[in-house]
Design a protein that fits this description.
Blueprint: H1 5-22, H2 29-36, H3 50-64, H4 69-75, H5 82-98, H6 100-115, H7 117-141, H8 147-166, H9 182-192
Helix pairs in contact: 1-2, 1-3, 1-6, 3-6, 3-7, 5-8, 5-9, 6-7, 7-8, 8-9
């Protein structure tokens, strides 16, 4: 296997672009090579197979979509209340919207995992790890609500992000006077997170 880390990262990012645009059926080494602008056969020198590429894409996406440490640090200076949780959810929505390609690739990976048990195991582990991290973070930060609050918030925000990135018209005007996505984020947090 080739070991140029910059080239590998470029190929992984190219794979994310292809997966987001073409879906899992369009994710071939040839398509990744074309997207990355490298000679045909390059991707096959960097990945043992398609599953290896998908696993590395999963790891990369969790880095791409992670909170900016400076934003996180600034937010953590605020009072630990519902308003802070709302700010965290606005940041989550902004990151998903900003890297729409990355988030859509994550959704495609979820679909691919339903058909490929070997990917399902790896992907379940990484997503579960993120959820457990979120629960620990919420507890350690002293934010209102407990693990159940985090899980329900996770499910609600996942649905909101899915609709916003794939079929934004579904939510437009469904609640008069509530903007999408900002107003919906406010409503989700208001319904899920207790006041303290």
């Amino acid at each position: 296997m080739a070991s140029n880390p910059e080239r590998r990262a470029a190929l992984v990012d190219a794979g994310i672009e292809v997966l987001s645009r073409e879906g899992a059926r369009g994710l071939t080494f040839r398509a990744v090579d074309a997207e990355a602008g490298v000679p045909v056969g390059t991707a096959s020198n960097y990945f043992t197979g398609r599953d290896d590429l998908l696993r590395q894409m999963d790891a990369r996406l969790h880095v791409r979509l992670a909170p900016d440490p400076s934003v996180l640090a600034e937010l953590m200076t605020r009072p630990k209340d519902r308003a802070l949780v709302t700010a965290f959810m606005h940041d989550l929505m902004a990151r998903a919207t900003h890297d729409r390609t990355g988030y859509l690739a994550l959704l495609e990976m979820r679909l691919e995992a339903t058909r490929r048990p070997e990917l399902r195991e790896s992907y379940t582990e990484s997503v579960r790890g993120d959820l457990e991290y979120g629960m620990r973070f919420h507890r350690d930060a002293g934010l209102p609500g407990g693990d159940e609050t985090v899980v329900v918030l996770y499910l609600a925000m996942l649905g909101l992000i899915l609709e916003h990135l794939t079929l934004p018209g579904v939510l437009d005007g469904v609640l008069p006077g509530v903007g999408v996505p900002e107003g919906m984020v406010e409503r989700v947090v208001g319904m899920v997170v207790p006041e303290e």
